Amino acid sequence: MSKTKSDKIPHYELLYLISNQFSEDEVKPIKEKVHSLIAANQGRITLSQDLGKKRLAYPVKSYRYGYYNLAEFDMPGINLAALDRALRMTNEILRQQIVIKTVQTAEQIAEDKKIAAKIAARNVQEEKTAKEKSAAAAMPAREADKDKVDLKDLDEKLDKILETENLL
């Protein structure tokens, strides 16, 4: 039995950042240019998502903001280097990253949603428990406030003690 690569075409995810020197209308032709680069390298786009304009964590080529875009596509692995090189040569794109993405089945997506719901429920429960603990910690302080004696009462008691003739 010989080991050969699968005939299945790999699925990739491309996240790229367009500089903010362009308006939102000028970004659309740049996205089309990226899509045509993918198609020129025998790629088939399965998802294209605009993630919007966001502030960058640090300046990239002196830009503080950029338009984030995500594209998922199927492409033969042999053409990936050519696509990466073409994207690097595109002046409008500040950064890009291509990663292999596993395609999830409907069952896996449903399972991920169940897990996310459980995590959200656990977080809500932990917040509720933390609030109850902080409220419980504050309760003894409130009870101690009830036991406090007024200064006038304390002065009166001290005066009575001092007025007595037999202190010892």
Account of the protein in words:
It is a single chain. This protein is α+β, with helices and mostly antiparallel strands and 168 residues long. It folds into two domains: 11-103, Alpha-Beta Plaits, CATH 3.30.70.60; 107-163. 49% of the residues lie in helices and 27% in strands. It has four helices and four strands. It has helices spanning 24-40, 80-89, 106-147, 151-163, and strands at 11-19, 44-60, 63-74, 93-100. A four-stranded antiparallel β-sheet has the order 2-3-1-4, covered by helices on one side. The longest helix has 42 residues, at 106-147. It is elongated, with a radius of gyration of 33 Å. The model has no long low-confidence stretch (mean pLDDT 84).
For the structure shown, list the relevant keywords.
168 residues, 4 helices, alpha+beta, four-stranded antiparallel beta sheet, Alpha-Beta Plaits, single chain
